[in-house]
């Protein structure tokens, strides 16, 4: 005796296609939300990094009696250019105040970066890196091969490249190219030029460190994205505004590749803003559309001009 056939429930082809379409729509709605959450988390971490750099800079000032210099010494020895080699940068000098004393202790500040042990300059420190950027690599075509660790943050040098006479808050020691001996050893007795009292425009109105723009073709470890521990100027300091020479440095969007002076300007990977820590220690995003005049007033420490709130 045969059993009666039982009809098993199932999906028709049309029903299956409808379900797939609904799932695709839900994924399409979910992905942007996930990306926004990730970017928000990355921006929060970036903000915290700059906050830590600001706190470290204040601690350095309290300990040493002056603001951290952009770098020690110049880029010449006995008239011969040594760039991209150089002496310790702000990224080295702040290490003890960022709980990185073990790395700092491997440095001999009297010697060029190329003379240091590799463990001193090959560190990739998360506090110097924005998580919205690609993972770091050791720099290439630098003071040594393999090169050193990177940073997505740079010192606010002012509105032009005036060396030790720069008008920003974080500038080099004075008389840079006379501060070393012919044997490539830094002379003793160096001091930073500026204190908090030098920021006569007010610490709440003056930029200290910010996200440096890196041209897409320079990511990672090339050109202006070389090691923050080496002597390549564009890797450790940036400028902004419109200076007396007519050089224009707006805040750059992430995809700016061939814009004039893009390799010396600020600009982060975040949508619409570039993150900065001001000299009073607060961190704020400055809109990429901020006018050049306002950027100049923000980055110059002593021009006596009102900044306003339009940034």
In short:
With 311 residues, the protein is of the alpha+beta class. The chain is built from 6 helices and 9 strands, in the order αββαααββαβββββα. The longest helix is centred in the first third of the chain and has 52 residues.
Task: For the structure shown, list the relevant keywords.
single chain; 311 residues; alpha+beta; two-stranded antiparallel ribbon; 6 helices; 24% helix; globular
Describe this entry's structure for a reader.
The structure is a single chain. The chain is an alpha+beta fold and 311 residues long. It has six helices and nine strands, in the order H-E-E-H-H-H-E-E-H-E-E-E-E-E-H. It has helices at residues 13-64, 90-93, 101-104, 118-121, 233-236, 292-299, and strands spanning 76-77, 80-81, 153-158, 207-211, 237-239, 241-242, 248-249, 273-278, 283-287. A five-stranded mixed sheet has the order 5-3-4-8-9, sandwiched between helices. A two-stranded antiparallel sheet has the order 1-2. Strand 6 (241-242) and strand 7 form a beta hairpin. The chain starts with 12 loop residues before the first helix and ends in a 12-residue tail after the last helix.
